[in-house]
Fold histidine kinase.
Amino acid sequence: MPRIPPRVPPLRAALLDLAAGIGMAGPALMVLHSYDSRPVWMTVTVVLLLAVAVIVWVLWRRSGQRSRTAAVAFAVVATATMALGNGSLFYGIVWAACLVLGVTFARGLVLWAYAAGLVALVVVLHLGAGSSVETTYTEAIGAAVLAGIAAAVGVVLRDSLRVGDALHDALTRLDEANAELRRRIGADRDLVLAHERERTARDLHDDLGHRLTAIGLSLDYAARVDDRDAAQDELARARALVGQTLDAMRRLVRAMHPVELGALRDAEAFHAVADAFRGTGIDIRVSVEGDDAALPREHSLLLLRFVQEGLTNVVRHANATSVRLRVEAGADGVEAVIQDDGGRVAGEDGHAEGFGLRSLRSRAESLGGRFEAGPETDGFRVGIALPRVSTVPAPAGGPA
């Protein structure tokens, strides 16, 4: 399959138009200057050739500078125009032909063959006209120099366009990859939200739903029982359940409340997250040691996600009264630990990792870090350690 020639940027296309205009203006000026000393048929032929050259040039430009037929036709017309002329200004149009061939054909053989053909044509024309050997030799050398320079300019233009085209394609692929990455991030975000909603719905059903059901049964019993004291006791239990339900609802809302981090530094952000959870009634203590300001953005976001997920799990799944968040930033990396003093809620498996913890583990390992979670004698502990710079090698490129 033939290689597709590169696209010509608008500025370079305008320069090509200028070169072609100058190249065709030379023969036109020579015709005006010497029309009275040349045969009429030759003058008319050159004028017609110039008109055809303009038409072919327009067709070549409208093809996006890719029509090989138009390029070859322009080169033929330019060569015929030069052959009928007798002056240096007639060489301008073959310069334009070299540029056209250089842009249109990816292989340089076509361009250099045309340049060699121009030199051979000059020699043949002088020999046919009976020129002296010195004149023929001098004209051949001049034609070779001019054709060589024109071909070299055509090659440089072709190579520069090829590099620009490759850069354009690379940027296009990069934009497509960026769009695909954004699409996947959006899909992952939707998946995380779906899991979060599912977990929230389960908590509402299992905890708040049962509490509200118990309150309803208590009120129903109090309305039906004839014993006033028993009704009062049942109403007291219902009132206590209402208070407990409100506390549970506040804890759930606090755990899900997003923290507006804005332009906070990482250490301030950790304190802001902890403050959002203190309304749950749990004593949360935060200690940050070292400077974490130099962490990459991706590492900082993962640390915040770790703190939010860890504290959320404590609120939802642990009977804890106090939590300690410790962050230590050193020269090699940063380590964060969340440790509570409570056991798991009845029915919860303290060793099982839910979606949130599995996601944290996967992201930590992808950055060259580690993640751990497990019970201790006096509570539960989750920890994450990240290097200053990701130690995971970048994926290899495509096949060679």
